[in-house]
Amino acid sequence: QVQLQESGPGLVKSSDTLSLICSVSGGSMRNFYWNWVRQSPVRGLEWLGYIYQTGSTNYNPSLRGRVTISLDMSKNQVSLKMKSVTSDDTAVYYCVREVGDDGFGLWGQGRSVMVSS
Amino acid sequence: DIQMTQSPAYLSASAGDRVTITCRASQTIETYLNWYQQKPGKAPTLLIYSASSLENGVPSRFSGSGSGTYFTLTINSLRPEDFATYYCQQGYASPRTFGQGTKVDI
Question: Which residues in chain A have Cβ-Cβ distances shorter than 8 Å to B94?
Fold first, then answer.
């Protein structure tokens, strides 16, 4: 059974870089899109971007180039980096697996991140 | 960005009821529409993809329909475990966007 587990600091200072890792266990990372989605009371569910096994990426333009998603299939990990964070980036961050057009089929449990001033 | 608008935002129901949630897209998304269920403190889970296809393991009391800009999620014979928040999401264009959610409460 494939599982996704997010890890990383739960508290980040304003203007710093948020870094999270998603560890994938129980299955291959091939042939999937690996997404990051965040959720906050103010913004609701917000898609941040994805990376495919080829390394191709697609990001939400609203993030104005602050986000980088990378893939390390040798370690079964996907990472998220978001630079220049503000309090608006306080949210629960989810790692999500997607198969083509069939929706976000598998979610991690989420990592709560607070940005402090 | 494609805006997704759900209604109602809140729905009060009883076990055994049939409930319908609607989701409208600001432009056509064909059938690239997915539905999720989220319980408090948990991640969302996929219920329906491509507007009407039931995800593996999801009970058949859940069904989805629609195309273009108008979609519905129907839950027949509501069970206690169905009380949750439901979200629609479009996969037609980037950026992927979600509705604001519909909370189904007792």
Answer: 58, 60
CB contact under 8 A, A103 and B87: no
Collect all residues with Cβ–Cβ distance below 8 Å to A80 and sequence separation of at least 6.
A18, A19, A20, A21, A22, A36, A48, A67, A68, A69, A93, A95
- Summarised one tens digit per residue, pLDDT across range A78-95 is 999 999 999 999 999 999
Q: What is the pLDDT at residue A25?
A: 95
Q: B64-89: buried (b, 16+ CB within 10 Å) or exposed (e) per residue?
A: bebeebebbbebeebeeebbbbbbbb
For residue A47, the chain B residues in CB contact (below 8 A) are 95-98
Q: Hey, are the CB atoms on B91 and A103 less than 8 Å from each other?
A: yes
Model confidence pLDDT, tens digit, residues A52-73: 999 999 999 999 899 999 999 9
pLDDT over 90, % of chain A: 91
Inter-chain touch B32–A109, beta carbons under 8 Å: no
Contact B95 A104 (CB under 8 A): no
Tell me if chain A has a CB within 8 Å of the CB of B89: yes
